[in-house]
Amino acid sequence: MTVDPAGVASALLGGGVSRAAVTSTVPVVYDPFLPGRSVDRVTGVAELPDGATVPWNAIVKRSSGAGLRPARRELAAYRHGLTGRSSALSAPALLGWDDSGGQVEVWLELLQDRFDDRWPVAQFGVAARRIGARDAAMVGVAPVARFDSEDAWAERHGQPERLEEVRARRGRSA
Question: What is the pTM of this model?
């Protein structure tokens, strides 16, 4: 781990953290697969200046190898405000990050899917309208310097050779 847990906890809790530690790390099933990426749910405890302790949770994405380029693109989107609470397209808050050497590490706010990963059909329409609103809000906005918004990342994102693994995990036959 290269990101300081106290910085992550401070970002989550709005500051005022004396110390923080990670108490558990649990791998998250990540689909679609991105080469060289792992995703973990992290639980920790933060100590406040008055000595009280507060639990905290986050998601950490680590990418290396073939996953570095898309990971750096994702990190740039978070760092430049293209996602997050202030944009038309809401996303988890960026809590911490590191891009050094051969690995990119992105720490994000943990969100709960209120549909428990089983979206009703109408929810896809809601998501599409929000994406459209975000795109409309970006018309006329100057692009972020050195951010390739036209990069065809989706064409390189998946790993079709791992489809059988996903199907097996989800209990489906090929």
Answer: 0.75
